[in-house]
Amino acid sequence: MLRTPVNVTRLRILAWLREAGGDRSGFTADDVAAGLGVSRPVVLAHLRLLTALGMLRTDCCADPVVYRCDEARIAEVAEMFEKGW
User: Fold this and answer.
1) CA 70 remoteness from chain centre
2) pLDDT value at residue 82
3) For residue 10, what are the CA distances in angstroms to 15, 51, 61, 62, 83?
4) Known InterPro entries for this protein (predicted)?
5) pTM over 0.90
6) Which candidate among 3, 11, 70, 82 keeps its CA 20 to 30 Å from the CA of 51?
């Protein structure tokens, strides 16, 4: 059971995706792992959770899968936690 969507690694992933995003249409798990210096299995576990929470969107048709932030959902989740949910 998920106790909280907040975790240092997940926050780093979201921040990195936002900062590195620029004009790119997303990043692979390997991109994120290399960018953060974290192992691919660890990154994949966090990417899957963030995707399940709706905070990331994926292009599942791409091979490999490409991830990008869903800014509207991130703002929605942040607002819930600010209100003490």
Assistant:
1) 9
2) 83
3) 9, 11, 24, 23, 21
4) ArsR-like_HTH (IPR011991), HTH_ArsR_DNA-bd_dom (IPR001845), WH-like_DNA-bd_sf (IPR036388), WH_DNA-bd_sf (IPR036390)
5) no
6) 82
